[in-house]
Design brief:
Keywords: Glycolysis, Lyase. The protein is of the alpha/beta class and 341 residues long. Helix content is 48%, strand content 14%. The mean pLDDT is 97.
């Protein structure tokens, strides 16, 4: 069996990143509704099959895919298990293991992620199905009274317990503390985001150390440092890159093999541009890459539009965004390349 560090290094191999295809049923129902489709088992299967059979994207630019429980055990229309499709492309299957974020008692709009009960048994089952990594998302809200120290500590503690259980099962934990840019009211400054992100990361790594988590056998999936989506002044690409790098360098240990950013609160192009700007500066102790959902799938979803006859053009759209983010992970993305391709 490959070591945790070997799996983590494979997931952040140069020029590759992670496809987040782990939308919950309510989330994918919203995505489908945006193009006039109902969410049902057959359509969800067809959509994921379209992505996983996109040979160019999966072989050249994607290192791992985060799946749901449904998708991990699902098969394509011809009966081929999705896990087989991923193996043929040398892509590591992963699994979302949290049960979602729920309102935290006594707080103002804050949430706590649940799902630790029974996780040890679930992880053993996922490992038997070939899952090489897992993901748990903790959500940190910014408003006039939040985040509270209690909420940050509670989510960090849950992330650490999850990560420890993953490593016990031989699964690489992807630790995702997300400071929301698109939460409510969403009018905070980039400096406020930087302060909260720094406090969150500091607390998360304190809890990971206390839990005995091997930092060389995990990955971090953080937010970028952004202004809220309703903030008056929108920071430049360079400012986002600089402040994000500053925060990571201050609070993320060099022992972590890689950082795979989430794309929340950004357009497709913004997520690509910010990642590329960080890598263009260089001199970081970790591989910086992507673990994107919407920013990889938006155009492909609309091109597919629920029709199997649209697989080929949708796969081309997916491959294009995957290639652009591959370039960004190397610091080589340019807007003119994106538009010309």
């Amino acid at each position: 069996m490959a070591s945790l560090n070997a799996i983590a290094q494979k997931l952040v191999a140069p020029g590759k990143g992670i496809l987040a295809a782990d939308e919950s049923e309510p989330t994918i129902a919203k995505r489908f509704a945006s193009i006039g489709l109902d969410s049902n088992l057959e359509l969800r299967r067809d959509y994921r099959e379209m992505l996983f059979r996109a040979t160019d994207a999966m072989t050249n630019y994607i290192s791992g895919v985060i799946l749901t429980e449904e998708t991990l055990e699902q098969s394509a229309m011809d009966g081929t298990p999705f896990r087989t499709l991923l193996a043929e492309a040398d892509v590591v299957p992963g699994i979302k293991v949290d049960r979602g974020a729920f309102p935290m008692p006594g707080s103002d709009g804050e949430k706590i992620t649940e799902g630790l009960d029974g996780l040890r048994q679930r992880l053993a089952h996922y490992a038997s199905l070939g899952a090489g990594f897992a993901k748990w998302r903790g959500v940190i809200t910014i408003n006039e009274t939040a985040p509270t120290r209690n909420n940050i500590r509670a989510n960090a503690h849950a992330l650490a317990r999850y990560a420890s259980l993953c490593q016990e099962a031989g699964i690489v934990p992807v630790v995702e503390p997300e400071v929301l840019a698109d939460g409510e009211p969403g009018d905070h400054s980039i400096q406020r985001c930087q302060d909260v992100t720094g406090e969150t990361l500091e607390t998360v790594f304190k809890e990971l150390r206390l839990a005995g988590v091997d930092l060389s056998g995990m990955l971090l999936k953080p937010n970028m440092v952004l202004a809220g989506h309703r903030a008056g002044d929108k920071p430049s690409v360079d400012e986002v890159a600089r402040k994000t790098r500053e925060t990571l360098l201050q609070f993320v240990p060099a022992a972590v093999p890689g950082i795979a950013f989430l794309s929340g609160g950004q357009t497709d192009e913004e997520a690509t541009a910010h990642l590329s700007a960080m890598n263009e500066i260089g001199n970081m102790p970790w591989h910086l890459t992507f673990s994107y959902g919407r920013a990889l799938q938006n155009v492909a979803l609309r091109t597919w539009n629920g029709k199997r006859e649209n697989f080929a053009p949708a796969q081309e759209a997916f491959a294009h965004r995957a290639r652009m983010n591959s370039l960004a992970s190397l610091g080589q993305w340019r807007r003119d390349i994106d538009l010309a391709a």
